[in-house]
Amino acid sequence: MNTEVFAARHIGITERDLPHMLETIGVENVEQLINETIPDDIKLKRPLDLPEGISEHEFLNHLQDLAKKNKVFKTYIGLGYHESLTPSVIKRNILENPGWYTAYTPYQAEIAQGRLEALLNFQTMVSDLTGMELANASLLDESTAAAEAMSMLFEVRSRQQKKGDVVKFFVSEEILPQTMSLLETRATPLGIELVLGNHEDFDFSDKFFGALLQYPGKHGQVNDYASFVEKAKAKEIKVAVAADILSLVMLTPPGEWGVDAVVGTTQRFGIPLGYGGPHAAFFATKEAYKRNIPGRIIGITKDTDGNPALRMALQTREQHIKRDKATSNICTAQVLLAVMAGMYAVYHGPEGLKYIAKKVHGQACTIASAVEKFGLKQLNTSFFDTLKIEVGDTSKIKQMAESSSINFNYVDDKTISISLNEATSNEDVIKLMKLFMLFTEHKEDTFIENAIGDGKIPSTLQRQAPFMQHQVFNSYHSETELMRYIKKLERKDLALNQSMISLGSCTMKLNAASEMLPLSWAEWGNIHPFVPVNQAEGYQEVLKSLEEQLNVITGFSATSLQPNSGAQGEYAGLMVIRAYHKSRGEEHRNICLIPASAHGTNPASAVMAGMKVVVTKTDDKGNIDMDDLTAKVEQHADNLAALMVTYPSTHGVFESSIKQITKLIHDNGGQVYMDGANMNAQVGLTNPATIGADVCHLNLHKTFAIPHGGGGPGVGPICVAEQLKPFLPSNPVIETGGENAITAISAAPWGSSLVCLISYGYIKMLGSEGLPKATEAAILNANYIKDRLKGKFDVLYTGERGRAAHEMIIDCRPFKTNGIEVTDIAKRLIDYGFHAPTVSFPVAGTLMIEPTESESRAELDRFCDALLAIREEIDEASAEETDNVLKNAPHTLGMLTNDSWSHPYSREKAAFPLPYVAENKFWPSIRRTDEAFGDRNLMCTCTPIEEYMEV
Ligand SMILES: *Cc1c(COP(=O)(O)O)cnc(C)c1O
User: Fold this and answer.
1) 566 lines ligand 1 (CB under 6 A)
2) Torsion angle, CA of 679/140/330/472, rounded to 10 degrees?
3) Ligand 1 atom, smallest distance to 505 CA
4) Which InterPro entries match (predicted)?
5) Which atom of ligand 1 approaches the CA of 598 most closely?
6) Which of 260, 514, 739, 886 is an S-S bond match for 824, by CB 3.0 to 4.6 Å?
7) Does residue 140 fall inside a structural domain?
8) Is the CB–ligand 1 distance for residue 698 below 6 Å?
9) Which 3 state secondary structure label does DSSP give 565?
10) Is 593 domain-assigned?
């Protein structure tokens, strides 16, 4: 074995496994299987035009060379991004720990109590600091969170009044530029009219449904918005505030003014800048809007035994189910980053946060008083950490600053702003003051020692309310204690370092350590997204190369890395299509055809893009019903904007009529959007351009090895054909996007740049040969599982020649006659040490299994053995007798060691049903959660659990 070939480490099966696997499937070789799986007319005839793969060692050297091209300046740009210090204990035990970063979204609460608790901490911290009743478990970035707030307030208002009535939304001119750009993107398709202005001049006319304020303002001014909110309320204008989380430690929380939503980012709570992301945004609101909150909320409930348990609350309102009635398309959020930020709050506690906030504020005051003594004007009458200074001529100070490796924010020709942060040392403060002294040619540096200014927060805006008084925020302040707390939570969670997570449509493959390592390096972590591009040449090279790699893989002309999730990619792609039609004078095209089997984010994104969703039927083989599609295309031909099609389909099948379908759309003036979340079955073998699509998103957090993080981060780039290239999204601060670009989709110019390193490495290391090999192995593994389960579990859909693609749906509905539901199987798999496959998507009562190429034959066999053993247990079960091993699953250690045991099966059968289980037993920490109880008694912050259980 050549030990340098990365593909051999990434792909789980070996040559030795092939004969048995091929025999099971009933083919001579892999080529035959692929020929029987992928329709001939869409197969690529040539290898990918990419270099050969490189070894892990070579990749790390390569990234070290590139890292040197990034210049790490002291950056005081602010504008929503601040250098922060990731506590090493968090970096090592969470960011660098597969137990945390490879976990899946916590749908299976029984094996996810650790990250659910970490997220509850995050929500509690956000609720307390903002002064709001409820917070979600993160959103994508501050600007999208602000846009979600706008949509939510619009929706809430529209429910009371007829739509089209009150459509104006006031935005304070203090808003961050990237937020304004994103609001424009979101407002237009919804028919919302944005009005930018000074909050003091606002007339509170009854044409406004809402307003958005920034606190502190983009250049640091701290305003008292109490009377604004009061006047707005009197006119039924809802108010959202974008707030800086660290400032809220010292400032009156907006919740005290009675605002309706508070949003922002938690980046400065220990998350690296990463040239723009990923970071966890927060969204806090009132209890009254709990059913309108975008994203996920963690709530407290109880399990079968009545013990407290956590789970995702109000799951039924998730977008998967709401579809075209959805107001938000958020699916993947920023869980890993939220876990880290919440843990930062746990580690520092309220006293630690106060120290950090006071230090930053004190340094700002010191510099403010010095620059004033030097004769410069500091313009913020009240501030937290950001000064706005009139310097006369910015070009001169810019030159001086850059030669000292310092970045300021250059507001205009004569004004700069400086934002201080946790990482600013007293030496840095002195350096800054000296720079101003030299700049003003002031010669008395005694000012510097004496420059301690007074606090610059007026008494009405000084925070009085205590925060984070819960035990969790006041217990783990030593490293040993926090390390053990993190471990305690980690042990409750099943991640990829325990066993296969065969989630159909989610592609839980290896996230290689070599892909992950560079994320910890300062040259990648510590770059602000708005530095001049010549300070980020290493990043520019990686991002450009990744765009080119993805162009080659998709067969398209251009890529935008901006969208922070698959759903954001969908939205971006549809907005680009919209802009394209508009540029051709065909603005009226607004019909979006979507097959019934599509992922729930598809219709949600289409609605957000201002399109009308028309659902088309699927036939009994799981394919698009051509007759129905043709009829609907003809019916809507004049207004057809797009078809959204998932390929291979959500049913795990390569439809052979795909080219006919895309042609039909083009012939009728529409564009074809391909949902590329399932790209794992295509890479190197076929591609979206070949099937006739015009744009697709890819989920880099599925196919391209970015870890799932427990529900984020994600990167959902869009790749487009030539005609759509001019419309790729822009950023208002740093130039990016097409020549006729739409406004921003994400806050940062290249979205979550830091984790793009992972996908870049994945493609670079696998190379032109390894990529198609990985795809073949993914298809082989899926078909192997399918044929091992044959006769015991029916696969719902297959291709024309009886093959699955990279995933398959097994039907669990027939077991109802034995009283067994699909959930029982999902929970029983936990007893066997496995995470359930995707439950009831896209078909209720089924499991969708996707093994990926990274699993070994031994693991595939264990998984099949478990399912086959469960199949026998199903046969033993009956609808009349519900005290059985499936209905009672999962079995906890507490249940099994209880002195009384009254069940008709043995404890051994419950806990150790197969020999392999005993060797590596995973114990769930709770029994099944009671969903209905939790939704009835919604509780989403860390209130003492005992108190709550008495309800
Ligand atoms: C995962 C997925 C999405 C949504 O991606 P997010 O990153 O979670 O927003 C969309 N479509 C399909 C088919 C998917 O599997």
Assistant:
1) yes
2) 120
3) 15
4) GcvP, GDC-P_C, GDC-P_N, GDC_P, PyrdxlP-dep_Trfase, PyrdxlP-dep_Trfase_major, PyrdxlP-dep_Trfase_small
5) 13
6) 886
7) no
8) no
9) coil
10) yes
Q: How many CA atoms lie within 13 A of 40 on its CB side?
A: 2
Q: Which helix (H) or strand (E) holds 604?
A: helix 601-608
pLDDT tens-digit series, residues 111-168 = 999 999 999 999 999 999 999 999 999 999 999 999 999 999 999 887 776 556 899 9
Domain with 626, as residue range(s), is: 553-767
Which ligand 1 atom sits nearest the alpha carbon of residue 714?
7
CA distances from 333 to 119, 230, 329 (A): 12, 33, 11
Pairwise CA distance, residues 107 & 931, whole Å = 11
CB-ligand 1 contact for 807 (6 Å cutoff) = no
Measured CA distances, 514 to 56, 88, 337, 507, 545 (Å): 6, 20, 20, 19, 18
CATH value at residue 567: 3.40.640.10
- The runs of H, that is alpha helices, within 290-407 are 319-322, 335-373, 394-403
Q: Whose CA is nearest to atom 2 of ligand 1?
A: 677
**Is any atom of ligand 1 closer than 6 Å to the C-beta of 567?**
yes
729 in any annotated domain: yes
Block means of pLDDT (10 residues each) for the chain, length 951 residues?
Answer: 94 98 98 97 97 98 98 98 98 98 96 98 98 97 98 87 80 98 97 97 95 98 98 97 98 98 98 98 96 92 94 64 75 97 98 96 94 94 97 94 98 97 96 90 64 81 96 97 98 98 96 98 98 98 98 98 98 98 98 93 94 93 93 98 95 92 98 96 98 98 98 98 98 98 98 98 98 98 98 94 95 97 97 96 94 98 98 97 97 96 97 96 96 81 56 39
CA of 144 to the centre of ligand 1 (A): 17
> Ligand 1 mean position to 270 CA, how many Å?
28
Q: Is 72 helix (H, G, I), strand (E, B) or coil?
A: coil
From CA 119, how far away is CA 117, in angstroms rounded? 5
416 Cα–ligand 1 center, Å: 41
CA nearest neighbour of 905 among 922, 927, 888, 925: 888
- In the chain, how many domains are there? 1
∠ Cα 445 450 454 (to 5°): 135
| Tokens standing for residue 497 | 């370092």
Q: Determine the pLDDT at residue 340.
A: 98
Residue 22 CA to residue 32 CA, distance in Å, equals 10
